[in-house]
Amino acid sequence: MGEVDPAFIQAVEHRPKLAIIEAEGIPLIDLSVLSSNESSNPSSTEPLVAEIGEACKNWGFFQVINHGVPLEKREKLELASREFFAQSTEEKSKVKRDEVNVLGYYDTERTKNVRDWKEVFDLTVKDPTVIPASHEPDDKELRKLVNRWPEYPSELREAFEDYAKAMEKLSYKLLELISLSLGLPEDRLGGFFDDHTSFIRLNHYPPCPIPHLALGVGRHKDSGALTILAQDDVGGLEVKRKIDGEWICVKPTPNAYIINVGTIIQVWSNERYESVEHRVMVNSTKERFSMPFFFNPDHNVMVEPLEELTTAQNPAKYKAYNWGKFMADRKRSNFKKLDVENIQICHFRIKLDESS
Ligand code: OGA
Ligand code: NI
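^ 2-oxoglutarate (2OG) and Fe(II)-dependent oxygenase superfamily protein, sequence as received from the core. Prediction below:
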């Protein structure tokens, strides 16, 4: 990444503390009951549903083990990702994203207008994926996003497709459990995902000479429904703990996945479950790899608090918004530095007292 560009420097209040706080971490949840013979019996999953509900409410984050995703599928994609990023910038740039097709390689992402110390490769799960051509509300034109496949490593495509299938399966399972935990039927949310716009990001965080000043990813909330993250054994992900706002490190657990609820679930649940801020620290000696799967609904879904979860005492806290337009706006602002603030969910929040 060359000389340190001042665009990477975080404001003083957002710089990481390099001394890690040892603290109670995010909940670790065992999903083995789902693969047991008992799983068709609703009472056998009740404790699990309760555990997931508590984790979503108190942390917005949890880790899962015994999730049923074969380790081999993950390892194949991890290896292909390492091989891809180990190539020269020139080689990687052959599959670089552009303004029309936002999928592919890039190393210039900004979070809240500060550059992230990382390079990424974005791949869509349903290839092609249809999304609105622009963020303009009246523009009805659609656009197809297609994956770009690098020449090397040639195994990347198959490894990606296998892994993506496993992630889809786990996402639907988690969505059912989350629906149940909100007191809804297990199939209440699945219909929003028939033509889902999910994508996988391969992240590479190179060693950084200024880990006290920069971040791999600046503080942010994930804007989709759910994220399933595979991180390697280096560590660096930090989650903002709800009770006190401290940044808590998520210690790597072999073969576990880190799950977090995104902003769409925050809105659907009318804030029973909040999407929690997180960020990634980098370090001066070790490179780090991670692979988030962002589970996102169809582009035409209007996201709004679910009727069943709002009452006269607890009215909807958000106006409905179109997921595809929201996403198109985000992708646009990721592509180049805009002078305007990018779209935020607070723009759709209803002020309960409009006069104030
Ligand atoms: C993200 C993210 C965490 C990580 O890409 O949204 O939070 O550990 N990544 O890479
Ligand atoms: Ni994130």
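Residues 201, 203, 217, 222, 229, 231, 237, 278, 280, 290, 292 surround N-oxalylglycine (ligand 1) (CB under 6 Å).
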